[in-house]
Amino acid sequence: MMAAAVAGQRGLRVVLIDHASRLAEKIRISGGGRCNFTNIGAGPANFISQNPNFCRSALAGYTPRDFIDLVKRHGIAWHEKHKGQLFCDESSEQIIAMLQAECDAGRVKWKMPCTVQSISRASDHTKPPAADALSGANAPFVLDTSQGEIAAHQLVLATGGMAIPQLGATDFALGIARQFGLKVVEPRPALVPLTFDTEAWKPFATLSGVALDAEVSVRHQTEGKKKAATTFYEDLLFTHRGLSGPAILQISTFWNPGQPLQLNLAPGQDMEQLLLQAKSGNRQQLGTVLSGLWPKRLAEQWLQNAPNQGQQLDTVRMADAPDKLLRSLAHAIHNWTLTPSGTAGYKKAEVMRGGVDTRSLNQKTMEVKTVPGLYFIGEAVDVTGWLGGYNFQWAWASGAACGRALQQH
C-alpha cells in the first residue's frame, strides 16, 4: 500500500493485487490491536541482514518522522509506550484506513481477493497478453490471475514472509525470486518464542506465566574470529514449552540452532552480596529469603532444581548455608546457560528472517539488478528488524523508496 500510494500519487497507473479477502490483517493484529507503527529510534543498527548496509539508503530516505507526519495529517492520535515504540491511541484500523486513503488519492486500482497463478515475461508468450493491460503495449511482465491476465511494465513484490500463515502468509515472493534467478537467504522464524526438549524443560514447565526482567545473550563469531555477544535487556516469560517475552523474541532473531543462550535472571542486582548480607543470624529458610528477592514461584522451583547444586535447597536455613553454596547459587542465577531445541515456528513468529538476497537489489530503488522493472520490498527482503515497530518502518521506508523509483511508461 505504501509503494502503491507513492507511485499512484506521482501519476503512475497502479494496480494492487491481494489474495486475502480482508485488507492488512498483520497491521490489524499488531500492537494488541493498536499497531506499533514505528519506532522513533529506528536506524540501520536495529536490523539484521547478510548485507547490513543495504537498508541505510531507504531508512534515510523515509524516516520515522516522515511516517509520523503522515499519521498526523490523517488526524490519528498516538503515544510513545516503551523504548521509542509508537502506538495508535485508538485502533490499528486507523493505519489501514490511512494507507487505503493514500492509495485512493493516487487512484490505485484494487484487485482483491485476487490470486496470482503465475508470473512470466511477455517475451515467453507466443501471442500478446489478452489483457487488462495495465501499462500498454510491450509490457515485459504478464500475470495470470484469478481475475484475468495483467500486463505490466513494472512489478513490485510486497507479499511479506511466512510468519503467521493463519493470516495467509506464504513464501510467494521467494518462489518468484528463485524463478527469476535470484539467490534467497535461508528463511526462518524470527521474533519467535524458543522451545526446549520436553523432558529437560519439565522442571520449569510449571512456571508458565511467570515473568521477570532478564538479560539474554547469544555469542557469535565475528569476521576476526573473535566471539561477540548480542544482548537484550527486556521482560522474559516462562511458558509450558520454553521461554518467550520481549527478551526472547529479540534474541531469537540472532539465535542459530545449536547455540546456547546466556541468561542473567537478576540484572542490576548483586545476588551474591544480597544473599551473603541476608545470612547473618537469619533463621529463615533459603527459599523464603530468595522469594523476597525474586518472583516466589521462580524462587521455589529454582531451589528445587538449582543448576549444578545436586541437592534441594529450599528448606536450607540461611544461617546454615555455606558461603560457597550461596556464591554458587548467585552465579547460577546471573549465568544460566541453556540451549533451545528450536523455535515455536512461523505460527508464533512475528516476522521471517532471511529472504531475497539484497545483493541482488539496488539499495536506493529496491529494483532487481538483473531484471529491470522487477522490485522486492518489505519483509520478503533479507532485512529483519528488532521487536518494537522497526519492521513496520522498514515496510514504509522500502515501499516509499520503491514507489519513488518506479518510472512512467
Textual characterization of the structure:
The protein is of the alpha+beta class and 409 residues long. It is built from 13 helices and 22 strands. The protein has helices spanning 2-9, 25-29, 56-61, 64-73, 93-105, 172-179, 198-205, 246-252, 271-279, 286-291, 296-304, 323-334, 390-405, and strands at residues 15-17, 36-39, 47-48, 78-80, 85-88, 109-111, 116-121, 132-133, 141-145, 148-152, 155-157, 184-190, 194-195, 211-221, 227-238, 242-244, 261-264, 336-338, 342-343, 351-356, 374-376, 384-385. The strands form seven sheets. A seven-stranded antiparallel beta sheet has the order 18-17-14-15-16-13-19. Helix 9 runs antiparallel to helix 12 (323-334). The radius of gyration is 26 Å and the shape is elongated. The two termini are 21 Å apart. The model has no long low-confidence stretch (mean pLDDT 93).
